[in-house]
Design brief:
The complex is a heterodimer of chains A (312) and B (267).
Chain A lengths: L1 H10 L3 H37 L1 E3 L5 E5 L2 H7 E3 L5 E3 L2 H33 L2 H12 L6 H12 L4 H8 L13 H25 L3 H11 L2 H29 L3 H5 L8 H9 L5 H31 L4
Antiparallel strand pairs in A: 1-2, 3-4
Helix pairs in contact in A: 2-13, 3-13, 4-8, 4-10, 6-8, 8-10, 9-10, 10-13, 12-13
Chain B lengths: L1 H13 L2 H23 L16 H8 L1 H32 L8 H13 L2 H15 L5 H26 L3 H10 L2 H30 L2 H6 L7 H11 L3 H26 L2
Helix pairs in contact in B: 3-12, 4-7, 4-9, 4-11, 5-7, 7-9, 8-9, 9-12
Classes of the chains: A mainly alpha (312), B mainly alpha (267).
Amino acid sequence: MNRTMINADAIAPGMSLKRRQQLLSIGYAMPVLVTILIFLMVPIMFIIAFSVMKAGVYGGVEWEFSLEAYIQLLFERQLDESLVFNDAYIGIILRSIKLALMTTVFTLLFAFPVAVWLAMQPKKKRNLFIFLLTIPFWVNILIRTFSWLLILRDTGLVNNVLISLGVISEPIRLLYNDAAVLVGLVYTYAPFMVLPIYSTLEKMDRNLLEAAQDLYHNKIKTLFKVVLPLAKPGIFAGCILTFVPSLGALVAPELLGGGKQMMLGNLIYRQFSEARNWPFGASLSLVLLVMVMLVLMIAVMRADRNELKGGS
Amino acid sequence: MSFFKKSTRYEVEQFGGFGIFTLLFFIFLYAPIIILIIFSFNENSSATIWTGFSLDWYRTALENDGLRSSAWNSVFIATVAGGISTIIGTFAALSTSRRAKWKGKKATFGSIMLPLLLPEIVTGVALLAFFSAIGLSIGRGNLIIAHVLFCIPFSYLPIRARLDGMDDSLEQAAMDLYSNEWRAFFKVTLPLLMPGIVSGAMLAFIVSMDNFIISLLVAEAGSTTLPIFIFGMVRMGVTPDVNAVSTLILIVSVAIFSLAHLIERKR
């Protein structure tokens, strides 16, 4: 790191080149910063603004202050204008959190042994498997979820096989429930969990394993006392990479939940399509955004703490 | 060397069951995709009972006008948005690589990653609200803006990785030789950076082609993209022409990704 500075100083005397390079760096950052500011930060401000406005009749909003969207989150307005508590939307938010947590747990259970095994392989084999692991990520999420529709539906592969084996006589309903959505989510995000765990374990000192083996003479103990603690930062990163997108999932609940087992993602989408209630959709988006921000803040705080502790 | 090999084998044996587990995991990962591809060649229209080989569904899919026009639409948007995001990403990588030293570097990196961290549905809703509030309605233009935004991290990361792995002594030598930063940049830095830029552009292209959620929210009538059209087809009913289109997209995505992977690894 110091070499760059020494070289820079060797070319031009003192501060002037360093200053120049600093200014150049700031200049290079401008296009991306301006794009993110105008087309992401400002639009998020507009979500906040839209959430406190009146719904337009044909979608959109009327520029008039109203807290109706937030009232709707908790209450149902009766014919006589009185408010009755309504837990339907809270229920959907809680179901989204529950499904996202379950996705994270199941993904972790699948991903951890895979990551450990991959990290133990010789380099060539490792690279091949990592390549195979990343391919599904580049396959359209719609196609990946659709493939589960083919497997799970009434006339799908599972039912056909079970019927031809004589296990069942009538197709059983595998789709349009939370389990089907869960399968779709775990399938979509499993590589997101394997990769960070793998990359922390890959750097692990193998001598530690040898030492642990000598010490404990026990594979399971070695796994829990040595490998698991070492993998912790990767597990944490993987959990965030799985939990955050699952929380706002749209495709899996739409296709595999049949749009009936709603999650926050498809509830929001409904407000901008059929329901034409933009302010309510905006307020729900804010609920999702706040939850995601909380998770990310915990992640950043954890990363800073580890840095302070003097980790690498 | 032999010592290393021996110890590796020893460690693999330590968690023996994990090998079988990993195999099952990869079957879980690939089986659904392979089943989807197999049934795209099925003669029967039920899409799940095999009756015989046929290419009819590919013909049906390719003859579908809506599908063709949405595919061209997607290619156009991915090309323009991928190009713009790669230019922005290149500059962003130059400003945040390991040798750049300035105060806002960490915050800039955070901003670049933001489109990747936020749930897509939130980004989509935000852009929809923004476009409607300022009255921006330029058809494919709206989609291009949205796509540039979420493509930036994907074009940025490979360029940044290339830059971080580059030996800066060559550039220092070029600076001595040309004694002009711009000439040094165009004659040395840019050519060295090219593999990163090309693979970044390719990744941005696939990400744009594949995007569904943000496009669904932002797309206006008449500017349907391929994933949106496929979503409509799936909703209408599961027919094997969806398998056929999916297989075609899959082949294109995997081919481009593999190529980008090869280019990136080339030194």
